Amino acid sequence: MSQPRSSLKNILVTGGSGFIGSNFIRLLLTDEGLLDDCRIVNYDKLTYAGNPENLSDLEGDERYEFVHADICDAEAVERTLKTYEIDAVVHFAAESHVDRSILDSSPFIHTNVVGTQILLDACRRVGVSRFVQVSTDEVYGSLPASGFFTEETPLAPNSPYSASKASADLLVRSYCQTFDFPGIITRCSNNYGPYQFPEKLIPLFITNAMNDQPLPVYGDGRQIRDWIHVVDHCRGVLAALLNGQPGQVYNFGGLCELENLVLTSTLLRVLGKPESLITFVKDRPGHDRRYAIDCRKAAEELAWQPQISFKQGLEETVEWYLSNNEWISRIRSGDYRKYYEQQYGQRLG
Ligand code: NAD
Ligand code: DAU
Fold first, then answer.
1. CATH number of the domain residue 75 falls in
2. How far is ligand 1, taken at its centre, from the CA of residue 213, in Å?
3. For the chain, which end, N or C, has fewer CB atoms within 10 Å of the first or last residue's CB respectively?
């Protein structure tokens, strides 16, 4: 994909210490070479999912700054936008896990909805030239056995998480319409790759299998997700930032639909672990059956398409977790243990 050189100078990335945000910042600063003259400011509250270790390799890079703050703190947001003369914002910060939103939806409303509104107002006051709202295909709800989500699919969120993301998307849309705000919305399918917090399916199953622990498959395990490597998603967000049209929505997907059970067996095979680790547990309430993305608009208008095959991406991801046992151990020895017991009614081994 060829991209014009960016005229952006100071980019604020919210939630840059999380899974996708950290991969995005690394892409900007190391892989693309497009933004060599840019400064990247990572604005992150460091919740349970935010981990400074995810970007420890960038310490000392003078193009990178970290601000430890909450997007719900209007003063801190505005001060940061002004101090660093921010001209574009890429908004990843969110509570991101569906199961946690079922246990307690309040942090989701607070950060994902109110936090986005606070950020939008500050950006409007300061006058940024671009704002990318990083959203999810879950806002479209669930698909039957056929069909795809397009950018025109009506919003029909089924979990408190997806309802909070849909609310934030609608706020962005309304600011574009009402204030001529330069907002762009991206909606992506399920990401996998390095630095993903192990509450999500792929890293949870890899880390449990590494420890010979059961893999808790919800319901019948026949639910379908469309898997995309995190770097392909990040390339899409970058393409939207550089070449997207304000007021537009762009879907990204991996063209890789898989049933959870098929994915689980593949993972066990790659890890050399037995199928007997699979354990069927109570289904997730309101569990969406199928997601699948039509990403032709991103291909046509942003010259974007996913490049990393699932086979290669999954093998590299497994290898990354196998090689980063200390990163995993630090998470699995902390508060995550309490969440695991509450969610699965079992102790983490
Ligand atoms: P994550 O949970 O790994 O990271 C979220 C980050 O946001 C963390 O660093 C956290 O500390 C930070 N954060 C949370 N609340 C904050 C607040 N109030 N102020 C400042 N920072 C805060 O999430 P992720 O999987 O990297 O997802 C990032 C974004 O991408 C989210 O908006 C999510 O909805 C969206 N998304 C995720 C996926 C996926 O498959 N993971 C797919 C599509 C879209
Ligand atoms: O589609 C994009 C979304 O993908 C993002 O917006 C979310 O932030 C991200 O968390 C992800 O949501 P899912 O709910 O699809 O991901 P999760 O990894 O939680 O679950 C994937 C599938 O695996 C889903 O069908 C539920 C199932 N599952 C999950 C867990 C954690 C299990 O069967 N067992 C589990 O223990």
1. 3.40.50.720
2. 27
3. C
